[in-house]
Amino acid sequence: KTMLNDLFIPFNIDTTGDNSNLFEKSWSDIIINNKDVRVLYDNTNKGLLYYLFLDKKTFIITDSQDAIKEISDRLIAKKTKPL
Question: Is the pTM here over 0.90, yes or no?
Answer without folding.
Answer: no
